[in-house]
Design a protein that fits this description.
281 residues, mainly beta, 4 helices, 19 strands, globular
Length: 281
Amino acid sequence: MKLVRFGGGRTGVLEGDAVIDTGLAPGASWLPFIERQKPSLSGPVKDLASVALEAPLPDAGSRIFAMGGNFPMHLTEVTKNFPVPASIADPDSPPWGFFVIPGTIVGPGAAVSPPAGTSFFDYEAELAVILAGPDAEIWGYTGFNDFSSRDAGMQLSLVDHGPLTWSLQKNFATGNALGPSVVVGEAVDDVPISCRVNGELRQQDTSASMRFDFAAIATHIREYLPLRAGDILVSGTPGGTAVEYGPQGTRWLKHGDVTEVEVGEAGVLRNAVEVRAHASV
């Protein structure tokens, strides 16, 4: 089963090229579905081509935990051109990452705008899984694009400096894309992950290459706080990002570029880069 959001947060079941409206109110939580209640298939049917899909956040209270450096090839290449703390490159270090603010998330087709003045703007294709409850059973998965402002790492900005890191370079308005659909009830141990920029393949790997799988990530997080239904874990990104080619590389995103993240059977998460003088939520 695949679930989507459309029409101001309405819930639909995607079957082929048809979207079946479940009749839920806009923005209604998917927690009843996660708790094994089946969605209604008796609502109006719309053609997928006529529907503007939105970010399939399962619940307004979903917490999003994103991993960093979780694909060895990516981390190895980054450390060649990007100054990182020794603890991050340490092969014996535990999982690490950052929180994603749900309000920064956009859906398929939305424009993505880096913070004003950004010189190094990057893409990161990732697998996002939605948890079924505190035991961290996986209910469903979808695609994620963790857009990143790399200026701080290139010593061009002081954002996120100091011991209390806010991770604003990861949580700017429109900085995280999710979708287009949530695939329910499928295994996630070997899910294909890819990213194209303007049609050129930049990233291609599977979740089997993750340094820490989702069970290990959940175990680490639960040492500090309980997980709950609707929470989201994000895999980290495979090799092929712009930062791996250094500041002089040619893969940095610019105005008008189009990214396409494809994760398993979730569909293509397509977003265009729109550089503005100022970005706002």
